[in-house]
Design goal:
The chain has 7 helices and 6 strands; from the N terminus they run E-E-E-E-E-E-H-H-H-H-H-H-H. With 252 residues, it is of the alpha+beta class. The strands form 2 sheets. A 3-stranded antiparallel β-sheet has the order 1-5-4, with no helix packed on it. Strands 2-3-6 form a 3-stranded antiparallel β-sheet.
Length: 252
């Protein structure tokens, strides 16, 4: 197995990962893909952490150079990995958008308290933004309840996970911007012994990563447009073309 993958979350802390790879180049692109369990300590596997602007290295780039994976590591059926991958992503979006909703960015209550301490609690623009953030939190919370209820009834997660993820990401960006604005100069500089004053800077530098996790904002909007709103798909002239014809090579 030879290839490259970027934006892999937490890979530097994992022993194993899930990998999808082209195993049949003579069928269209969403077929002929197989999912495997990959031992990240395998010869030829290299993990390179990507250092982000918030000082962390949550994402990674993975390089595979002639990595051998035993047949026993196939997940599901050979050449049916796309279905396994979309099921996995649907569950990931449930986790990102609903189950973990708002747990890693300041919530409306915290921002309200910050507005009070900064003397902005009566400012009409600030009050409107706080109300909108509170409504977004309630929206994602209700979506989370709906999704959890469906899962407990044995239903497969649907596109509502994409809705929740997109709302949560937008909320986090807006909360980070408002928090930085209210905190003022503390967002850029704080005393070394000041406990918690770096929260707003850390939040502002961390939220862009949410637009990647579980699928980019653009992918989520496409899913919502097609599967929730029923909008027509964009034309796909290569939909039924064998993958080999799209790349000019068999793939690895």
């Amino acid at each position: 197995m030879t290839g490259q993958k970027i934006w892999t979350s937490g890979a530097q802390d994992c022993d194993f990962g899930l990998l999808i790879a082209r195993t049949d180049p003579d069928v269209p692109k969403h077929r002929g893909i197989t999912m495997f369990v990959l031992d990240l300590s395998s010869p030829g596997a290299e993990i390179r952490p990507i250092h982000q602007m918030n000082g962390e290295a949550h994402f990674n780039e993975i390089f595979l150079d002639g990595v051998r994976i035993p047949a026993a590591n196939v997940v599901g059926r050979v050449n049916d990995g796309w279905r396994a991958a979309t099921t996995m992503l649907a569950n990931e979006r449930v986790s990102l958008g609903a189950v973990r909703a708002m747990d890693d960015t300041p919530n409306a209550e915290e921002l309200m308290e910050l507005a009070r301490t900064r003397g902005r609690a009566q400012d009409p623009v600030t009050r409107r933004e706080l109300v909108e953030l509170w409504i977004a939190e309630r929206t994602v919370g209700l979506l989370g309840d709906r999704i959890t209820s469906a899962i407990l009834r044995g239903q497969t997660p649907g596109p509502e996970g994409s809705v929740a993820t997109l709302v949560r990401t937008d909320h986090s960006r807006r909360a980070a911007r408002l928090g930085a604005e209210l905190a003022g100069a503390t967002t850029a500089a704080w005393a070394p012994d000041a406990d918690g004053d770096d929260l707003w800077a850390a939040t502002l530098l961390s939220v862009p990563a949410l637009s990647i996790a579980g699928g980019t904002d653009e992918i989520l909007r496409t899913i919502i447009g097609e599967r929730v709103l029923g909008l027509p798909k964009e034309p796909q002239v290569d939909k039924d073309a064998p993958f080999r014809e799209l790349t000019g090579r068999a793939g690895t």
